[in-house]
Amino acid sequence: MKTVKIALLGIGNVGGGVYRILNEDKASIGHREGLACEIKYVLVRDVNKPRDLDFPKSLLTDDFNVILDDDEIEIVAEFMGGIHPAKEYMIECMKKGKSVVTANKEVIAKHWPDLNRAAKENGVGLFFEPSVAGGIPILKTLWTSMQGNDIESIYGIINGTTNYILSRMTDEGLTYEAALNDAKKLGYAEPDPTNDVEGYDATYKLSILASLAFHAKVPVEKIYVEGISGISPIDIDYAKELGYVIKLLAIGKKNGETIEVRVHPTMIKKTHPLASVNGAYNAVFIKGSAVGGLMLYGQGAGRMPTASAAVSDIISATNPANFKYTTFENTYETPKCLNFKNDWECGYYIRVSVHDRPGVLASLAAVFGQHMVSIQSVIQTGQREDQVPLRIVTHLAKEQSVKQTIEAIKALDGVIQVDSLIRVEDDI
Ligand SMILES: NC(=O)c1ccc[n+]([C@@H]2O[C@H](COP(=O)([O-])OP(=O)(O)OC[C@H]3O[C@@H](n4cnc5c(N)ncnc54)[C@H](OP(=O)(O)O)[C@@H]3O)[C@@H](O)[C@H]2O)c1
Predict the structure, then answer these.
(1) Span from the CA of 80 to the centroid of ligand 1 (angstroms)
(2) What is the pLDDT of residues 78-108, one digit of tens each?
(3) What is the 3-state secondary structure of the chain?
């Protein structure tokens, strides 16, 4: 049996789960893989901190150099989070011939070029399956199971916090604030939830996913992002009436050398498989040229699901045959041949508050027409009230034309305000 010595950088949520699997499943991993994974060090900030995990405290160190300088350590698994010093630690380890496994989506999304180069130049492995969609083996699927496809599109529910909040709002009629409070109490949302609810976490994951799917580096800065904090129960109810549910979708599409990447609340048909992904669950729906549509579903975060992906990477990292480096140009600059689109096409749902008087609807319709935005349906509820809601759903329209339309209708006599705009994806 081959023995591999490992160091964990961090033993919080994810690191703790990895420790548990490698210890509790030692016999079955040994039996199945012919491998003994021995954890020699665990790096932490504070060696004296009380911990909820039962493990020999002699493994703990707060000195990274002890790990770096130990030639017995073949694999370093980073579960600290943040950019610094995680990035520097990983690069230094790779320079010393150690393979790296990480769950750190932010550092991969922002510093993949440096990390990929360090791995390639030093002939070691860089594995990051747990960084996207926790326990769902989506990156391995893209790397090793879909080579016979050009990937046309990906649609992901890849943030559990926002999916939990939207599910509670949809199923129980909760307000955004009430659902967010429950998410915090249950540990699905951080005390400062900005990164999740404003969509940034999903952009890191989409950057990694889209790069692998489209075989081109997709920088985080090219991703349009809009979070869920503006979603109201009224729009959720109206979406239901129209046969839709609202999800925070991470969308990537490629057509020739043109790529569109965006994260925003999206209305999808309630009959689509993604519509039934509820609670903190994640799913990724991919369309490949040969396979057609395919969906992976599972737990996108949490100690044991994320550790499941990390342990798989640790096992992969024991065999150089599994080392993979990106064959696309993985640089900080966007390749000149790629065109990132900010004028994509989709449907739009727009809710406007107007005064209920003759002529208002006609003037609104005229503005849509002037901007070449074709209206599919208009629903007005309430009558002879000071303020009535109009719900407009468009046919496929261009993003920039819709934005100009919105600006123009805000200035119309009789229009009180534009309350919401939610994109609609009918053709997933
Ligand atoms: N939690 C999830 O469900 C999940 C899912 C997917 C991916 N991830 C990613 O996994 C990573 C870890 O997340 P987590 O939730 O496990 O974090 P966590 O519970 O906060 O644990 C972080 C661990 O890293 C240690 N650490 C942090 N900074 C350090 C430093 N500068 N030097 C030494 N040790 C340091 C901490 O030491 P102390 O114990 O001494 O404080 C702690 O043990 C993040 O990149 C996160 O984005 C998490």
Answers:
(1) 3
(2) 999 999 999 999 999 999 999 999 999 999 9
(3) CEEEEEEEECCCHHHHHHHHHHHHCHHHHHHHHCEEEEEEEEECCCCCCCCCCCCCHHHEECCHHHHHCCCCEEEEEECCCCCCCHHHHHHHHHHCCCEEEECCHHHHHHHHHHHHHHHHHHCCCEECHHHCCCCCCHHHHHHHCCCCCCEEEEEEECCHHHHHHHHHHHHHCCCHHHHHHHHHHCCCCCCCCHHHHCCHHHHHHHHHHHHHHHCCCCCHHHCEECCCCCCCHHHHHHHHHCCEEEEEEEEEEEECCEEEEEEEEEEEECCCHHHHCCCCEEEEEEEECCCEEEEEEEECCCHHHHHHHHHHHHHHHCCHHHCCCCCCCCCCCCCCCCEECCCCEEEEEEEEEECCCCCHHHHHHHHHHHCCCCEEEEEECCCCCCCEEEEEEECCEEHHHHHHHHHHHHCCCCEEEEEEEEEEECCC
